[in-house]
Write a structure and sequence with these properties.
The chain is of the alpha+beta class. It has one domain. The chain is 33% helix and 23% strand. A 4-stranded antiparallel beta sheet has the order 1-2-3-4, with helices on one face. A hairpin with a 5-residue loop joins strand 3 and strand 4. It is elongated, with a radius of gyration of 21 Å. The N and C termini lie far apart (75 Å). The mean pLDDT is 86.
Length: 111
């Protein structure tokens, strides 16, 4: 009887720990982009990082100039923070690698 109880407890603990390990705590792309910004850039965002537009885009010559020099993939995520434009620049844009979700560049959209 004790062996059965012991085995049941061990099995229950094993499944509980496996369930905890499979829980994924991935950040949304908006938050990855927001966390990469400097304090000055973060202060440009008037409401929330969620007030942004996320798109998977092809890397064009216009986009390429904002990306790290060693980035050579065909697509990236573009996170455009709304309401961050000023007199001289368009909205703040952060580019994230489409495969590993690391920031690979940032800049301002054309006005």
């Amino acid at each position: 009887m004790r062996k059965l109880l012991f085995f049941s407890i061990i099995t229950l603990l094993t499944f509980t720990l496996m369930g905890c390990n499979s829980y994924s705590n991935n950040l949304p792309l908006e938050m990855i982009a927001f966390n990469s910004l400097s304090e000055d850039e973060q202060s440009l965002i008037p409401v929330s990082p969620k007030d942004s537009v996320v798109e998977k885009i092809n890397v064009t010559s216009d986009v390429e100039k904002f990306l790290d020099d060693d980035y050579n993939k065909a697509q990236v995520y573009s996170v455009i923070f709304n309401n961050t434009e000023n007199e001289s620049n368009g909205n703040l844009v952060v580019f994230i690698d489409a495969n590993n979700e690391e920031v690979v560049g940032k800049g301002y959209a054309k006005k």
